[in-house]
Amino acid sequence: MGGDGLRVEIDGPVATLTLDRPEALNALTVPLKVALAETLRAIGADRTVRAVVLTGAGRAFCAGQDLAEREAPDAAPLEVELRERYLPIIRALRAMDQPVIAAINGVAAGAGASLAFACDLRLAAPEARFVLAFGRIGLVPDCGATWLLPRLVGQGRATEIALVGEPIGAEEAVRIGLVGRVVPAEALLSEARALADRLAAGAPLAIGWTKHAMETAWTSDLDAALAEEARLQGLAGATADHAEGLAAFRGKRTPDFTGS
Length: 260
Ligand code: T3D
What we know:
Elements: E1 6-11, E2 14-19, H1 30-44, E3 51-56, E4 60-62, H2 67-70, H3 78-95, E5 100-104, E6 107-109, H4 111-118, E7 121-124, E8 129-131, H5 145-153, H6 155-164, E9 168-169, H7 170-175, E10 181-182, H8 188-200, H9 204-218, H10 222-237, H11 240-251
Parallel strand pairs: 2-3, 3-5, 4-6, 5-7, 6-8, 7-10
Antiparallel strand pairs: 1-2, 8-9
Helix pairs in contact: 1-3, 3-4, 4-5, 5-6, 9-10
């Protein structure tokens, strides 16, 4: 960690990014946001990394914008801060081909909740809770919350969460489809790592195209989604990894995907 509050560990094909400002519940400062966006972009371009885990140090996942920093006289206007510092993080998360797992160890509030929503998969400790804290401080949901949350839990539920702002606990998050499963706190990182390893053993090109197809299908009609699936299947079918998958099936062995 270089004093920016982000810890980056790359172990084999898995990168683990830890928001590491536990004294402020991993609230997002300018240096942390810049480091996170740059790291996500760099990892997105690194073919040796095949899965990413995002988590928080200490008792929180992320408390959103650092409110002390926001009160500083030289703080950028909100819209500028969002456009220049937050949106690159959300865009990088959504654009990267590798799957990103949020290991939500504690509270995820404001932009911290949006960060968790923007990941591809979510595992939560029993202590995790989601707080759409924006309304409490007179702000509107941002960092993709209005787009991401309805896709995860449906428009009605998302609107209720956004307007009422009642915290969503881990078990309820599972019940409404916001989180895949709850894992004991002491096992959260190892479970996230096991899931990351499993994804990292998959065919990277197909995984990236699957992410792309799942994302674009939401904003297209059925015909366009069918056409896009067919196009991507054409690409996937021509990969060495598809040939390897077939050979492994015939040989009753585990495939060794190379991302080609
Ligand atoms: O630039 C822009 O502003 C645009 C982008 C906006 C996006 C946003 O994220 S807006 C939403 C910002 N976040 C919040 O409003 C959440 C504020 N925090 C809370 O509501 C609560 O702390 C939590 C619900 C997250 C957790 O509550 P609790 O009771 O478990 O912890 P606590 O006692 O409130 O906090 C512990 C410490 O963390 C405390 O410091 P202290 O008193 O021990 O020295 C608290 O001040 C600090 N902390 C918590 N959240 C933040 C924070 N410090 C700075 N920024 C925070 N967001």
